[in-house]
Amino acid sequence: MSNATRLCALADLVDGAAARFDLHGRRLAVVRLGDSVYVIGDECSHADVSLSGGEVEARDCTIECPKHGSEFDLRTGEPKSLPAVRPVPRYETTVVDGDVMVELT
Q1: pLDDT one-digit tens code per residue, 14-66
Q2: What is the SS3 assignment for the chain?
Q3: Are 51 and 40 in contact, with CB atoms under 8 Å apart?
């Protein structure tokens, strides 16, 4: 991850919950599931609603839009249910020495 940017410390994230970060002009929904961290765009592709306010389903690795209930796969950004039909951006992440690094390109 040559163009990776530090997002936060892994310890700053609550396991099984989403948090919103604004980084370099992008709204990001960040979800920690155990030692894995997923970063997707924080705007539902169906409506301008923050996904970081939605419920995380760890078993399915999804997050639900709090407005209309569309679920998005945290691994791919793809919608898993209607009314959303378009994916949201997904960003590569890694944890290095306890810091969450994200690739925004």
Answers
A1: 999 999 999 999 999 999 999 999 999 999 999 989 999 999 999 999 999 99
A2: CCCEEEEEEHHHCCECCEEEEEECCEEEEEEEECCEEEEEECCCCCCCCCHHHCCEECCCCEEECCCCCCEEECCCCCECCCCCCCCCCEECEEEECCEEEEECC
A3: yes
Pair 40, 56: CB distance under 8 Å:
no
Residue whose token pair is 């396991």 = 15
Q: Report whether 94 contacts 81 (CB < 8 A).
A: no
Compute the C-alpha angle 69/74/77, nearest 5°. Answer: 80
pLDDT for res 48:
87
